[in-house]
């Protein structure tokens, strides 16, 4: 199946999943609502905090926000042109117009695209509330995308007259994020849509798609033509075309909080009141809710491939890899308890673990996990993966050979597989 067909299936599946889950939520207690979750963990803001731009991280060469010109220069230096075999509708459908602010945002999958869609809807509608009150699959959370009706030439012409924004993400991080979210975590849709094909090609026979290894996934990326690759892991350059379009601002996931605040200020939306000291907690609360609701929405189908305790352990490790809960906190449920685990109980347990973890260095933990995940990839394969995403690395000013992924490696070195759950 090509990228266009897979993209359509993702959209259709998302709508069906959301509809089923809304019905499911009607039978849950009020404690399961996102409003309860946010109200419980949102401190009140005073007026002086509304316009505050916080320094969450130290700005470095790799995480600094770009004003656009540097990207243009790097595109020229490497003589880059986007892959013309990638369907134009991938590019057009990634553009979100924010007409009130004369801004166009390009969504990058696995680059906080869901967050940005919800935030831009709040701004366009003058809804002064956190973007997190919208559920990720809420069908009402969308902006009218006139670009889908435009020719590419007309889209280019339009974009010359708006401020254009986008977010990039380190390709190595983006690849791991997709694997953890779509293939390792309980996700029957992607197991069926992608996992079965990967295992069949890798092993010569198909499994349920639930047991794709990270090595097999990396091999899939390397051996699949870019136009056939899964939409979420396509080159950022081919999705947003920064070498063809001038982007006024290019933020980075590695400096997420700072760049969101700075972009809001630059487009004249700095009075939006939900980016003070509570932002990070609200962001993780939203992620927790999303992960838990997805687990329960998919549980019946995932039961066909893995037992429930394994499913819970995968969810738990996913939260640890994302730096939401400490790696020192074990899964608090037995195999028997996992069989009848309720939505509120799992939600509360994860929130409790998140709160206990607040004083730990989660940035270091995330680095440790990505280092361990890639340490089991053969060095020759690492070079091939780097080659696949080399242009993204160059254009967005990422290190071509990150020391924690390449610098301490030795051929034939074996390490612990973090995805091997016991």
Automatic annotation (TrEMBL):
Q: Which residues form the signal peptide?
A: none
Question: Which is a GO BP term held by this UniProt record?
Answer: carbohydrate biosynthetic process
What Pfam families does the record point to? Answer: Sulfotransfer_2
Asked if the Swiss-Prot or TrEMBL record annotates the protein with the keyword Nuclease, the reply is: no
Q: How is this protein annotated for GO cellular component?
A: Golgi membrane
Give the transmembrane region(s): 7-27
Membrane topology summary: Single-pass type II membrane protein
Any one GO MF term held by the record is: sulfotransferase activity
| Matches recorded under InterPro entries | Carb_sulfotrans_8-10, Sulfotransferase
Q: Where in the cell is it found?
A: Golgi apparatus membrane
Query: What's its EC?
Result: 2.8.2.-
Q: Record keywords: Glycoprotein included?
A: yes
Q: Which UniProt keywords apply?
A: Carbohydrate metabolism, Glycoprotein, Golgi apparatus, Membrane, Signal-anchor, Transferase, Transmembrane, Transmembrane helix
Spell out the family assignment given in the record's similarity comment: Belongs to the sulfotransferase 2 family.
Q: State the name under which the record lists this protein.
A: Carbohydrate sulfotransferase
Report the source organism.
Mytilus edulis
């Amino acid at each position: 199946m090509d990228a266009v067909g897979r993209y359509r299936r993702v959209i259709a599946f998302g709508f069906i999943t959301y509809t089923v889950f809304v019905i499911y939520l009607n039978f849950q207690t009020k404690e399961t609502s996102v409003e309860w979750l946010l109200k419980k963990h949102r401190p009140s803001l005073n007026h002086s905090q509304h316009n505050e731009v916080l320094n969450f991280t130290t700005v470095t060469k790799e995480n600094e926000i770009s004003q656009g010109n540097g990207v243009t220069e790097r595109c020229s230096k490497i003589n880059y042109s986007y892959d013309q075999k990638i369907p134009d509708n991938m590019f057009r459908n990634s553009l979100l117009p924010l007409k009130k602010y004369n801004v166009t945002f390009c969504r990058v999958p696995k680059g906080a695209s869901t967050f940005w869609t919800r935030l831009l809807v709040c701004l366009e509608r003058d809804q002064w509330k956190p973007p997190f009150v919208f559920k990720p699959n809420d069908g009402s959370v969308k902006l009218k995308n006139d670009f889908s009706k435009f020719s590419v030439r007309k889209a280019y012409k339009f974009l010359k007259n708006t401020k254009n924004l986008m977010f990039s993400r380190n390709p190595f991080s983006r690849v791991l994020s997709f694997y953890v979210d779509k293939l390792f975590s309980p996700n029957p849709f992607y197991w069926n849509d992608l996992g079965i094909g990967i295992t069949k090609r890798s092993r010569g026979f198909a499994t349920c798609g639930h047991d794709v290894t990270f090595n097999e996934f990396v091999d899939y990326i390397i051996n699949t033509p870019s136009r056939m690759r899964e939409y979420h892991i396509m080159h950022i350059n081919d999705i947003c075309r920064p070498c063809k379009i001038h982007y006024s601002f290019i933020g980075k996931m590695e400096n997420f909080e700072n760049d969101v605040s700075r972009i809001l200020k630059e487009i004249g939306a700095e009075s939006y009141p939900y980016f003070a000291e509570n932002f990070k907690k609200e962001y993780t609360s939203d992620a927790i809710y999303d992960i838990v609701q997805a687990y329960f929405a998919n549980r019946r189908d995932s039961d066909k491939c893995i037992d429930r305790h394994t499913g819970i352990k995968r969810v738990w490790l996913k939260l640890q890899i994302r730096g939401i809960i400490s790696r020192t906190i074990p899964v608090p449920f037995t195999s028997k308890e996992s069989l009848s685990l309720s939505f509120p109980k799992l939600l509360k347990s994860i929130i409790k673990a998140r709160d206990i973890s607040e004083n730990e260095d989660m940035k270091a933990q995330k680095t440790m996990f990505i280092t361990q995940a890639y340490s089991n990839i053969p060095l020759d394969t690492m070079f091939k993966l780097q080659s696949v995403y080399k242009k993204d690395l160059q254009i967005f000013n990422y290190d071509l050979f990150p020391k924690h992924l390449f610098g301490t490696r030795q051929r034939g070195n074996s390490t612990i597989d973090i995805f091997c759950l016991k």
